[in-house]
Amino acid sequence: MNLIVAVDKNWGIGKGNKLLVSIPSDMKFFRETTSGKVVVMGRKTLESFPNGLPLKNRTNIVLTKRADYQVKDAIVLHSVEEVLEELKKYESDDIYIIGGESVYRQFLPYCSTAHVTKINHAYEADAYFPDLDAMGEWEITADSEEQTYFDLEYVFLKYERVVRG
Fold first, then answer.
1. Sign of the C-alpha dihedral computed for residues 128, 143, 134 and 122 taken in this order
2. By the 8 A CB rule, do 34 and 113 touch?
3. How many CB atoms lie within 10 A of CB 42?
4. Per-residue pLDDT, 163
5. Element (H or E) spanning 15, and its range?
6. 81 in helix, strand or coil?
7. pLDDT tens by residue, 61-104
8. What angle do CA 29, 161, 75 make, to 5 degrees?
């Protein structure tokens, strides 16, 4: 299972249920990486999308505690266990956890690959991703050249869970 996230230098991911910054090449990478795949998100992440609609050309799975929550063209589930059961229907490599903070934290133990866009800037954030650099079981296995969007520098990193024997 994969996850995909954009973080600032403090591993911040959002503020006020919005992304910290929108970088076109990061959005393009997200679209190309998750298109035709399964995306798992929390209700607030879904509601932060344009018109609060599921992402096109993907199987959208929404995790919420709200028993009466329904959304057209998405699978709505109410526990991590229900989501994990549903995900058995799909190839693990085709599954992407896309946020927000609590969904990332709940599913990180089940992920083996993390696609992280790391932005070299500290924003004011109220939602954070776990610091993979501080976790011994994760290591960077691929990185891009440093990229720039206006005055923002960022890199695309691929982290993989390492099994140490």
1. negative
2. no
3. 21
4. 78
5. strand 12-15
6. helix
7. 999 999 999 999 999 999 999 999 999 999 999 999 999 999 99
8. 55
Residues of the chain under the 70 pLDDT cut: 164-165
Q: Report how many domains make up the chain.
A: 1
Question: Residue 142 maps to which CATH number?
Answer: 3.40.430.10
Give the dihedral sign, CA 142/145/146/147. Answer: negative
Q: Residue 39's CB: how many other CB atoms inside 10 A?
A: 24
Identify the residue whose tokens are 């609590």.
102
- C-alpha–C-alpha distance, residues 124 and 15, integer Å: 7
Find the domain containing 81 and state its range.
Answer: 2-161
The rounded distance, in Å, linking the Cα atoms of 58 and 122 is 31
Rounded to 5 degrees, φ, ψ at 97 are: -85, 125
Single-letter residue type at 120? N
Report d(CA 104, CA 130) in Å as an integer. Answer: 8
Q: Could you tell me the two tokens for 43?
A: 């209700």
Specify the amino acid at residue 63.
L
